[in-house]
Amino acid sequence: MSAIIFDTETTGMNEPVIVEAAWIQIRDPFTLSPEDEFEGRYNPGKPIELGALSTHHILDEELVNCPTASEFALPPGVEYLIGHNVDYDWKVIGEPPVKRICTLALARALLPEIDSHTQSALLYFFERDNARHLTRNAHSAMHDVMNCRLVLDYLLVRMRQVTEYTTWEDVWEWSEQARIPKVMTFGKHKGTPIKDVPWDYKRWLLNQPDVDPYLAKALNGGGA
User: Fold this and answer.
1) How high is the pLDDT of residue 156?
2) What percent of the chain has pLDDT over 90?
3) How far is CA 100 from the centre of its chain?
């Protein structure tokens, strides 16, 4: 089973397009030994927003002669896409038919006691003495991929303390459960356990367009 840890840098929040993509391929969920890697830049065909520019520092003029963003494709045979808040990167490359493993969801489930679950915060939690160095090049796609691999390694150690797994399918199933929210994070019932939210509100929310599919599972009792 082929899995890649994946990250992108994009044009920004408004209909984002990739400007940089990176991945490392790993097969063994125990050693996380890299088997292949890739990093490339792309011409998005639209201006980079200033907010994104101030984050990844990739200039529009540096991308003029790069392949177009539409030319990017995952390597053949990928079954599992791993990333921190992986859905963002998955959506920006066109939602390919792969299973997503979200390290953000795993961190929230395994470390509910810490105050932040960003990738940089997790590096300070797991690698306090080295975190300043590790985050120096954060928001370079390949550096973020390598940092995600480090975070994933620590999270899988934590997983082994509470469950048994042998394959990426096992990790994916655990990630899927971790992504189902237990508490409302917005609205008039913010902070309320979803099991205690009134059913009329649940029914109303389920009828809203574009409701998050994992929230829908929770509202329908799938996270109980």
Assistant:
1) 96
2) 82
3) 8
With beta carbons less than 8 A apart as the criterion, state whether 109 and 175 touch. no
Query: Taking a C-beta distance cutoff of 8 angstroms, is the pair 16, 40 a contact?
Result: no
**Helix/strand/coil percent split, the chain, to 5:** 40, 20, 40
What does each C-alpha distance from 49 to 9, 55, 94, 127, 138 come to in angstroms? 12, 10, 20, 32, 18
Question: What are the φ and ψ backbone dihedral angles of 210, each rounded to 5 degrees?
Answer: 60, 30
Q: Are residues 131 and 195 in the same domain?
A: no
Determine contact, residues 25/36, Cβ cutoff 8 Å.
Answer: yes
Domain that holds residue 184: 180-224
83 within 8 A of 48, measured Cβ to Cβ: no
Provide the 3-class DSSP secondary structure of residue 12. Answer: coil
175 and 192 belong to one structural domain: no
**Each residue's pLDDT tens digit, 95-145:** 999 999 999 999 999 999 999 999 999 999 999 999 999 998 778 999 999
Name residue, tokens 């539409």: 70
Counting the structural domains of the chain, the total is 2
Q: Are residues 58 and 164 in the same domain?
A: yes
* pTM of the entire predicted model: 0.90
Same domain, yes or no: 105 and 193: no
> How far is it, in rounded angstroms, from Cα 209 to Cα 18?
26
Q: Which residues of the chain have pLDDT under 50?
A: 224
Residue 86, both tokens: 């992986």
